Amino acid sequence: VQLQASGGGLVQAGGSLRLSCAASGIIFRIHGLGWYRQAPGKQRELVAAINSYSTTTYSDSVKGRFTISRDNAKNTVYLQMNSLKPEDTGVYYCAAWNIGSPYWGQGTQVTVSS
User: Fold this and answer.
1) Is 64 left (phi over 0), alpha (psi -120 to 50) or beta?
2) 80-98 residue pLDDT tens
3) Residues 6+ apart with CB under 8 A from 80
Protein backbone atom coordinates (compact mmCIF):
# COMPACT_ATOMS: atom_id res chain seq x y z
CA VAL A 1 0.00 0.00 0.00
CA GLN A 2 1.32 3.43 -0.92
CA LEU A 3 -0.13 6.89 -0.39
CA GLN A 4 1.81 9.62 -2.18
CA ALA A 5 1.01 13.17 -1.08
CA SER A 6 2.00 16.22 -3.07
CA GLY A 7 1.14 19.88 -3.56
CA GLY A 8 2.55 21.48 -0.45
CA GLY A 9 4.64 24.62 -0.51
CA LEU A 10 5.11 28.16 0.70
CA VAL A 11 2.23 30.59 0.27
CA GLN A 12 1.28 33.98 1.64
CA ALA A 13 -1.66 34.39 3.98
CA GLY A 14 -4.88 34.55 1.99
CA GLY A 15 -3.51 32.33 -0.74
CA SER A 16 -4.52 28.87 -1.89
CA LEU A 17 -2.96 25.45 -2.31
CA ARG A 18 -4.29 22.15 -3.55
CA LEU A 19 -2.96 18.95 -2.05
CA SER A 20 -3.23 15.61 -3.81
CA CYS A 21 -2.76 12.09 -2.51
CA ALA A 22 -2.53 9.21 -4.93
CA ALA A 23 -3.17 5.74 -3.54
CA SER A 24 -2.12 2.32 -4.76
CA GLY A 25 -2.47 -1.17 -3.40
CA ILE A 26 -5.96 -0.70 -1.93
CA ILE A 27 -9.53 -0.92 -3.18
CA PHE A 28 -9.75 2.83 -3.15
CA ARG A 29 -13.51 3.28 -3.55
CA ILE A 30 -14.38 1.47 -0.30
CA HIS A 31 -11.95 3.37 1.88
CA GLY A 32 -12.57 6.42 3.99
CA LEU A 33 -9.95 9.10 3.37
CA GLY A 34 -8.65 12.01 5.35
CA TRP A 35 -6.14 14.77 5.65
CA TYR A 36 -4.36 15.37 8.93
CA ARG A 37 -1.87 18.05 9.84
CA GLN A 38 0.82 18.35 12.43
CA ALA A 39 2.16 21.73 13.44
CA PRO A 40 5.53 22.03 15.19
CA GLY A 41 5.22 20.96 18.81
CA LYS A 42 1.60 19.89 18.42
CA GLN A 43 -0.24 16.63 17.99
CA ARG A 44 -1.47 15.46 14.64
CA GLU A 45 -5.07 16.55 14.09
CA LEU A 46 -7.76 15.63 11.61
CA VAL A 47 -8.46 18.46 9.17
CA ALA A 48 -10.97 16.88 6.80
CA ALA A 49 -12.38 13.46 5.97
CA ILE A 50 -14.52 11.92 3.26
CA ASN A 51 -16.15 8.51 3.44
CA SER A 52 -16.89 6.04 0.66
CA TYR A 53 -20.23 7.77 0.02
CA SER A 54 -18.42 11.12 -0.34
CA THR A 55 -19.87 12.48 2.88
CA THR A 56 -17.43 15.04 4.24
CA THR A 57 -16.48 16.36 7.66
CA TYR A 58 -14.19 19.22 8.61
CA SER A 59 -12.52 20.55 11.71
CA ASP A 60 -14.01 23.82 12.89
CA SER A 61 -10.75 25.63 12.16
CA VAL A 62 -10.95 24.97 8.40
CA LYS A 63 -14.70 24.78 7.79
CA GLY A 64 -15.67 27.07 4.92
CA ARG A 65 -12.07 27.41 3.71
CA PHE A 66 -10.98 23.86 2.87
CA THR A 67 -12.69 21.33 0.62
CA ILE A 68 -11.89 17.61 0.51
CA SER A 69 -12.84 15.58 -2.54
CA ARG A 70 -12.07 12.22 -4.06
CA ASP A 71 -11.74 10.83 -7.57
CA ASN A 72 -12.22 7.07 -7.44
CA ALA A 73 -11.26 6.71 -11.10
CA LYS A 74 -7.84 8.21 -10.33
CA ASN A 75 -7.44 6.70 -6.83
CA THR A 76 -6.76 10.22 -5.59
CA VAL A 77 -8.00 12.40 -2.75
CA TYR A 78 -7.64 16.17 -2.82
CA LEU A 79 -7.63 18.98 -0.33
CA GLN A 80 -8.36 22.42 -1.74
CA MET A 81 -7.19 25.02 0.78
CA ASN A 82 -8.32 28.61 0.35
CA SER A 83 -7.90 31.72 2.49
CA LEU A 84 -4.87 30.18 4.13
CA LYS A 85 -3.73 31.48 7.50
CA PRO A 86 -0.34 31.23 9.23
CA GLU A 87 -1.90 28.81 11.72
CA ASP A 88 -2.52 26.39 8.85
CA THR A 89 1.22 25.80 8.69
CA GLY A 90 2.30 22.22 9.25
CA VAL A 91 2.98 18.87 7.67
CA TYR A 92 -0.12 17.50 5.99
CA TYR A 93 -0.64 13.76 5.86
CA CYS A 94 -3.21 11.80 3.92
CA ALA A 95 -4.70 8.63 5.36
CA ALA A 96 -6.94 5.83 4.16
CA TRP A 97 -8.93 3.44 6.28
CA ASN A 98 -11.45 0.65 6.00
CA ILE A 99 -11.09 -2.15 8.54
CA GLY A 100 -8.13 -2.11 10.90
CA SER A 101 -5.37 0.45 11.23
CA PRO A 102 -5.23 3.30 8.72
CA TYR A 103 -2.61 3.65 6.00
CA TRP A 104 -0.55 6.85 6.02
CA GLY A 105 1.16 8.89 3.36
CA GLN A 106 4.57 10.48 3.83
CA GLY A 107 3.40 14.06 4.44
CA THR A 108 3.81 17.29 2.56
CA GLN A 109 4.89 20.60 4.13
CA VAL A 110 2.58 23.60 3.98
CA THR A 111 3.97 26.92 5.15
CA VAL A 112 1.80 30.03 5.27
CA SER A 113 3.64 33.32 5.75
CA SER A 114 2.00 36.35 7.30
Assistant:
1) left
2) 999 999 999 999 999 999 9
3) 16, 18, 66, 67, 68, 69
